[in-house]
Amino acid sequence: MNPVPQAEDTREKLQTAASIDTDPIDDLPLPYIEMDAFGVVTRANRATLALHPPERGELVGKMVWDLMAADEKDPSFAAYCSTMEAGAEPEVVRRSLYDRSGQFRTYELYRKLMRDERGAAAGMRVIFVDVTEKVKALDEAHRTRLWLESIMESVWEAVIVTDSVGFIRKANPAAEKLLRANHGELAGMLIEEGLPITECAGGNRSELQFNSWLETPSRGTATVLDRQGKEIHVDLSTSPIFDKETRSTTGVVYILRAL
To answer: Rounded to an integer, what distance in angstroms lies between the CA atom of residue 87 and that of residue 93?
Structure first.
């Protein structure tokens, strides 16, 4: 008696059973759901367990807005109904969801309409991407930028910041006033154009000094030209700007004080 056909038959039965018990979407690493035209979840993968507390049970049969922050529930539901009615492919949206950790986390929802045989919107597929840490980092970077800008605008000395090539990236109001420049006029100019130096320590012009200022801090007196070509005698300090991680030079900061 040949055992091979029996073995193949058993293997086929096991594979069939596995295909019945396992939904292919469970292999997706990100939370994925499908909703009908009324917003009721009809299908969800295992990764969606991260989206809600254990006592909520599975998402199937529920509405996803129940997981959202209170101020987002009604607008989200209204927007969903509007999308179903219009039948246009929806854009990526960002929502705060109450997840299994018991806290609200921020997700980006990548959405695609499901359509019936007539092409009308019949539901929606949604993939959830957790961007909580990304949003926190961007918010922190935004707050830091505003803080640095307020410092730049508050100091009474003229401050000009360039990149590593010599283009002016920032000039505070005191620098614009000293050089009689219009608001924002200096940004984007090369340093030798926005801050022409006719004399400085060593007798070099600004374009010849820039490479050395990228490497070594300096301080001394200088003669610069304002936007109308008038000479101004200043105390000039320069310092390279270093990237803390790479230790590479990313620009130069100039501090000027009229004598």
So the answer is: 17
Concatenated DSSP letters of 191-218: HHHHS-EEEETTS--HHHHHHHHTTS-E
SS3 43: strand
The model's pLDDT over 63-85, given as tens digits with 9 standing for 90+, comes to 888 778 788 888 888 988 999 99
DSSP secondary structure letters along 49-100: GGGS-GGG--STTSBGGGGB-HHHHHHHHHHHHHHHHH-PPPPPEEEEEE-T
**Residue 155 has what pLDDT?**
84
Task: Name the 3-class secondary structure at 179.
Answer: coil
Q: Which residues contact 169 (CB under 8 A, 6 or more apart)?
A: 161, 162, 163, 187, 251
- DSSP state, 47? G
Q: What are the tens digits of pLDDT across the range 147-163? A: 877 877 888 899 999 99
186's torsion region: left (phi>0), alpha (psi -120 to 50) or beta? alpha
CB contact at 8 A, 152 and 170: yes
Query: In whole angstroms, what separates CA 5 from the centre of its chain?
Result: 58
The predicted pLDDT at position 16 comes to 46
CB proximity list for 21: less than 8 A, separation 6 or greater: none
pLDDT tens, 91-148?
Answer: 998 888 877 777 888 999 999 999 999 999 999 999 999 998 898 888 888 888 788 7
Residue where the block lists tokens 């959830």? 128
